[in-house]
Amino acid sequence: GVRDTKNRTAGHLTVPAVEWTAFLGAVKSGKLD
């Protein structure tokens, strides 16, 4: 999961692996610029 390092007590965000992989692919390809 993803956590706010400045507010560790806030919990974390859980993302399914396939969606995380798609997000990283979009970032790497520049689609989110």
Description:
The longest helix is centred in the last third of the chain and has 13 residues, at 17-29. A two-stranded antiparallel ribbon has the order 1-2. The chain is built from one helix and two strands, in the order ββα. It is 39% helix and 12% strand. It is α+β, with helices and mostly antiparallel strands and 33 residues long.
Topology:
Layout: E1 2-3, E2 12-13, H1 17-29
Antiparallel strand pairs: 1-2
Give a short summary of the structure.
This protein is an alpha+beta fold and about 35 residues long. The chain is about 40% helix and about 10% strand. It has a two-stranded antiparallel sheet.
Helical coverage, percent range: 25-40%
Evaluate the radius of gyration: 12 Å
**Element-level helix/strand string:** EEH
Low-confidence spans = none
Mean pLDDT: 90
Shape: elongated
Number of strands: 2
Distance between the first and last residues' Cα: 23 Å
The largest sheet is: 2 strands, antiparallel
Key features?
single chain; 33 residues; alpha+beta; two-stranded antiparallel ribbon; 2 strands; elongated
